[in-house]
Design brief:
Keywords: Disulfide bond, FAD, Flavoprotein, NAD, NADP, Oxidoreductase, Redox-active center. This protein is an alpha/beta fold. 22% of the residues lie in helices and 28% in strands. The radius of gyration is 21 Å and the shape is elongated. Bound molecules: flavin-adenine dinucleotide (FAD). The site of flavin-adenine dinucleotide (FAD) has 38 residues, from helix 1, strand 2, strand 9 and helix 6.
């Protein structure tokens, strides 16, 4: 059995693997796609000590580093169920889609999350070429230009306020008749001179010139009128979904499906830890996921040295 079995090979899982292996623990990583969301990132410019890199390069370096310290990487493998052990010194069982079952004294869940897509024409085509999901990551790329934010919940309104400080103009489109964000945020948004808000606005299409985004086509659901908004960027903020559906009944999750963790990354089950975008820890970023992964591995080590000697 593994001392530490990690599910997920993004920044959180990789950092956990690095820390666990360097403690001399028998460590494995099961990852459907090593690198995780980082693979889909065009430019990374906010990781300390790395002024600029591209996602696939960052992901390849993560994998190389964990393999070099002796982590057993099971790439291309998807976990389908976790059966926690009943007793603190026992083994947890992780079932894979392949039919295999892996056993481990501690488990770290680092399965990340996925952005909910609009599902309109042009969105996939112009992803990373004007269509963006993370204002902290990509906001500076649109300095002085016109952008739209889709979604009027807390994350959409926060994104619009954030972007209003960088972009020339921000248009926020919300499908429902009113914004769902907290009143203080809506008040702040309404006070900004370079923001326009449209409610009952249905996004129809992301328009581009073949290379980059040039506009957004939307329909006013009240009047039925269609509009074409010229712009350089579209930030989709309609939800981040944690990859935790398969953990039903195994560990406690909140209303959004995020795994509930304490300050050490421990879940509701002894010996099972979680880190990164799949957890309740706020602000989903690479540097945060990596830090949380390191923390979860150190907490797993702490738990292991406290297990009864057998
Ligand atoms: P993820 O990166 O999501 O990795 C999850 C891992 O779990 C993957 O290996 C996946 O294959 C695996 N997995 C999931 N389910 C299973 C399963 N059932 N069985 C086995 N494996 C499974 N952040 C920044 O800090 N800077 C940026 O510039 C930046 N740009 C971004 C651009 C885009 C387009 C996107 C989508 C995100 C961006 N982010 C950026 C956010 C950042 O990528 C995430 O916060 C970070 O990758 C989270 O790391 P993670 O390890 O928690 O999860």
């Amino acid at each position: 059995p593994f001392d530490v079995l990690i599910v997920g090979g993004g920044p959180a899982g990789a950092a956990a693997g690095l820390y666990a292996a360097r403690k001399g623990l028998r460590t494995g990583i099961v990852a459907e796609r090593f690198g995780g969301q980082v693979n889909d990132t065009a430019a990374i410019e906010n990781y300390p000590s790395v002024p600029e890199t591209i996602g696939p390069k960052f992901a390849a370096a993560l994998e190389q580093q964990v393999r070099a310290v002796g982590v057993q990487v099971l790439a291309g493998q998807k976990a389908k169920a976790l059966e926690p052990t009943g007793d603190a010194a026992g083994l947890h069982a992780l079932a894979l889609e392949s039919g295999a079952t892996l056993r481990a004294r501690t488990v770290i869940l680092a399965t990340g999350a996925r952005w909910r897509n609009l599902g309109v024409p042009g969105e996939a085509q112009y992803r990373n070429r004007g269509v963006a999901y993370c204002p902290h990551c990509d906001g500076p790329l649109f300095k002085g230009r016109d952008v739209a934010v889709i979604g009027g919940g807390n994350s959409g309104v926060e994104a619009a306020i954030d972007l209003a400080g960088l972009a020339r103009h921000v248009t926020l489109l919300e499908f429902a008749p009113s914004l769902k964000a907290d009143a203080v945020l809506v008040e702040r948004l309404r006070s900004l001179p370079n923001v326009t808000v449209h409610t009952e606005a249905q996004t129809l299409e992301v328009v581009g010139d073949g290379a980059v985004v040039t506009g957004l086509r939307w329909r006013d659901r009240a009047s039925g009128a269609e509009h074409l908004l010229p712009l350089a960027g579209v930030f989709v903020q309609i939800g981040l979904v944690p990859n935790t559906e398969w953990l039903e009944g195994a560990v406690a999750r909140n209303a959004f499906g995020e795994i509930v963790v304490d300050a050490k990354g421990e879940t509701s089950r002894a010996g099972i830890f979680a880190a990164g975008d799949c957890t309740t820890v706020p602000y989903k970023q690479i540097v945060i996921a990596a830090g949380e992964g390191a923390k979860a591995a150190l907490a797993a080590f702490d738990a292991l040295i406290r297990q009864p000697v057998r």
